[in-house]
Amino acid sequence: MKAYKADMHIHSCLSPCGDLDMSPKSIIEKCLEKGLDLIAICDHNTVENAEAIMLLGKRGGLCVLPGMEVCSKEEAHILAIFSNMAQASQMQSYVYEHLPGINNAELWGPQIVANEDDEVMGENDRLLIGATTLSVHQIVEKTHAIGGLSIASHVDRSAFGIVSQLGFIPPDLALDGVEVSFRLPIKEARSKIRSIGKLPCITSSDAHFLSDIGKIHTTLVMAEVTFEEIVLALKGADGRYIVSD
């Protein structure tokens, strides 16, 4: 077993609130500089930049998982993280079917699709910053049906966290874990947010700027860096576990 540093919530220049400096190459360079072993790219309601970042990560010896931060109709953010692009693309199609609106780049910001050479391939014109028409239960159920992990984003925040939006974490919501932001230590979050209960907790940077990447991370003790090992670590199974939890 070995301890691995994971930052499982990083945005790219595709997220309208993400800095344009969050290009595929720059993200990987910063992650390697920070000594991260594992990241997940989770742009708002899309995975269109994940494949390029995964390719660069593989070249640099960094495990990159494709994901997205889905906004429910209750305006709660849920991370959907997958082991491969086929699964992630399937989730993207589902989310796009339930994502109304067109982006106004001047109002919300540009949504840049880039390749592994940091070349601009185009702009996504969907309202990625918006809410889907999907409930939190539908998002979690679909994520699991495809084979992904479902983690409630920044549950300690006063905006777009499931607790702030619903008042609690529904006991029948089959989350694989919750994410606590850098603002609050996990032990304190457990005592303050009682509905976390025994759910596994991770902490991530939710980076929108290069300087945010790796400012906080989760340490996972696993045999190797794979999606399957991450699942075991979240469950605390077979000697795998989350150090910060």
Describe the structure.
With 245 residues, the chain is α/β, with parallel strands linked by helices. It has one domain: Alpha-Beta Barrel (TIM Barrel). 29% of the residues lie in helices and 22% in strands. The chain contains eight helices and eleven strands. It has helices at 24-33, 50-60, 85-97, 105-108, 136-146, 162-166, 186-192, 227-235, and strands at residues 2-10, 38-44, 63-71, 77-81, 112-114, 120-123, 149-152, 177-180, 201-203, 218-222, 241-242. The strands form two sheets. Strands 9-8-7-4-3-2-1-10-11 form a nine-stranded mixed beta sheet, with helices on both faces. Strands 5-6 form a two-stranded antiparallel ribbon. Strand 8, helix 7 and strand 9 (201-203) form a beta-alpha-beta unit. Helix 1 crosses helix 2 (50-60). The two termini are 17 Å apart. 48% of the residues are buried. The mean pLDDT is 95.
Spell out the blueprint of helices and strands.
Layout: E1 2-10, H1 24-33, E2 38-44, H2 50-60, E3 63-71, E4 77-81, H3 85-97, H4 105-108, E5 112-114, E6 120-123, H5 136-146, E7 149-152, H6 162-166, E8 177-180, H7 186-192, E9 201-203, E10 218-222, H8 227-235, E11 241-242
Parallel strand pairs: 1-2, 2-3, 7-8, 8-9
Antiparallel strand pairs: 1-10, 3-4, 4-7, 5-6, 10-11
